[in-house]
């Protein structure tokens, strides 16, 4: 997985003009699509120019960076936001909604399909995960169904919902589509497939150890569990997860396994 994402990110940077403000970065994908990101949350924010006006996806660079986001948007297109979309309802993706609504942007919470954007709903990270495909740039915003900076969080949809969400994403665009995660470097479909593979490997290993009677603390120190977890550490962060987050990931995975088994 690491090889796929690093390759994709390198090509992406070479073919894009990148501007940096003090707190908001900009990556140009095409004349009609830019990806913005703030340092506080690292949320990937979509800025899409359509014939209906500017569309903003997941406008949350950080609570103290909304004015900078405003300035950055105007430096690119110099016109107001017409529509606001969210990949899901968590505050690190929706926190800037009110700011842009006050400026006249319309928050769209129902089905949304323009000539330029296709919208589908899945259930994986949350009970309603919105996926947006921008045809002109062949780019797919997938929210936290996929994250290249963190471990998978498939808690609302469980194993079945996660797999169905990945399949839905794979059915959009083509083999060359850019896949934009909720956080982390943009990737591609081979990366997404590797992410799914590693997620299933993780689930199966946790299930195996749990069924053998191991407790969470014992599972945490298992060598194979550590190796699988490291597959999600694309940026080679030392350590990838704090102990508290590592423990929570295992506990949540066990909870999902138990729910699946009780159905």
Short description:
Helices cover 38% and strands 21% of the residues.
Tell me the strand percentage band: 15-25%
CATH topology: Metallo-beta-lactamase, Chain A
Low-confidence stretches: 6-20
Q: In the CATH classification, which architecture applies?
A: 4-Layer Sandwich
Q: Spell out the CATH superfamily.
A: Ribonuclease Z/Hydroxyacylglutathione hydrolase-like
- Helix percent reads 25-40%
Please work out how many helical segments DSSP would assign.
9
Q: Alpha-carbon distance between the termini?
A: 32 Å
**Residue-averaged pLDDT, rounded?**
92
Structural category is: alpha/beta
Describe this structure in words.
The chain has 263 residues and is α/β, with parallel strands linked by helices. The protein has nine helices and eleven strands. It has helices at 2-14, 66-76, 91-94, 97-101, 158-170, 189-211, 216-220, 223-230, 243-261; strands at residues 18-20, 24-30, 33-38, 44-50, 53-57, 81-85, 106-107, 117-122, 129-134, 139-143, 178-181. A hairpin with a 2-residue loop joins β4 and β5 (53-57). The longest helix has 23 residues, at 189-211. The chain is elongated.
């Amino acid at each position: 997985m690491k090889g796929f994402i690093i390759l994709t990110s390198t090509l992406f940077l070479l073919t894009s003009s990148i501007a940096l403000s003090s707190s908001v970065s900009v990556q140009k994908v095409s004349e009609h699509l830019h990806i913005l990101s703030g340092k506080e949350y690292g949320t990937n924010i979509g800025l899409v120019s359509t014939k209906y006006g500017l569309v903003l996806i997941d406008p949350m660079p950080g609570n103290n960076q909304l004015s900078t986001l405003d300035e950055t948007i105007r430096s690119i297109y110099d016109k107001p936001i017409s529509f606001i979309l969210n990949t899901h309802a968590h505050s690190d993706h929706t926190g800037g909604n009110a700011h842009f609504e006050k400026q006249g942007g319309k928050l769209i919470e129902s089905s949304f399909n323009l000539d330029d954007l296709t919208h589908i709903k899945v259930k994986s990270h949350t009970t309603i995960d919105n996926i947006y495909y921008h045809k002109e740039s062949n780019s797919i915003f997938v929210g936290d169904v996929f994250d290249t900076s963190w471990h998978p969080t498939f808690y609302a949809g469980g194993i079945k919902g996660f797999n169905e969400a990945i399949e839905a994403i794979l059915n959009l665009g083509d083999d060359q589509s850019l896949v934009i995660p909720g956080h982390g470097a943009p990737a591609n479909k081979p990366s997404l497939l590797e992410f799914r593979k590693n997620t299933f490997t993780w689930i199966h290993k946790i299930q195996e150890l749990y069924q053998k009677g191991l407790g969470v603390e014992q599972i945490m120190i298992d060598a194979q569990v550590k190796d699988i977890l490291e597959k999600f550490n694309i940026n080679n962060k030392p350590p990838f997860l704090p102990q508290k987050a590592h423990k929570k990931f295992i506990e949540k995975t066990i909870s999902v396994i138990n729910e699946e088994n009780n159905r």
